[in-house]
Amino acid sequence: MHSDTPKFTAHKSFTGLLLLLIFTVQGWAQEPADSVLTPPSTQPFPVVPFNYSLSFKDEANSLNVWKHGLNDAAYLVTSPVRWQWKDWGIAAGITAGGALIYVMDQPLYESAAFLQGNSTSNFSKYFLDPLGDYRFQAVALAGTYGASWIIKDEKLKNASILTAEALLFTGAVTLFANFMTGRKTPLETNPIDPGQWMGINNSSSFWSGHAATTFTIATVLSGIYNENLWMPITSYTLATLVSLSRVVEGHHWTSDVFVGAAVGTVIGRMVVHNYRKKAVQLTPYYSGTFKGISARYTF
Fold it and tell me: What is the pTM for the complete model shown?
């Protein structure tokens, strides 16, 4: 009885810490709502503002996806030169958080090992792992994109395109990081050693592709469907469970999934931000003797 107490405490500590850190990453993932121009308060009638967001169909050549993707790729690569103090602070916070977790990787993994079992392994294998697999994601996106044409849902079409674009970016930088760092997974080390960085093209633990891609999807969908509370709750919960399972099953260290979640969130946020830059806000107003519509285009 005595020996079970530390296990239970470690179990709780690992789960609580990982959930706290991952939800901290996604807490700033949502794009702040742009303020809408409002008439003076002296106007006698209430104002009913509404937004019109340009879609890919509104652009010059129907689905001008390649041009949009190349623009976003250039924006992503050059984004550090446009960072403000807030952005550098976020980057510093992620770096510090990743470094702190890296120091604790071994005890965190040993704590996570107590969650292993037939039920958790089956849940991970048949449900959570496929969610972070690029093949499943490609099939799912093809399905949603096809469905958007059938039901004529422009928003679903744009969400599918933006998610695919963001996943391409995330996949590219993740493969590069895996190739360059060659960090070994917990299952590849004996005895357990989180400090085995073997260099170019030796292993692929850092950072977690499953965490990066699921958080990319969660961030893009939450940004596009930002009027629905269920979207961020569902998508970020699933992304967190996928990330947690990667550590429990020994495929990644905790620092791997933390950094992967951060990378996916940043890229998803960037793609949604660029999409929203093409938003036109129209505000009708009436003052008794004068009426009209004020418009604002965000560049």
Answer: 0.75
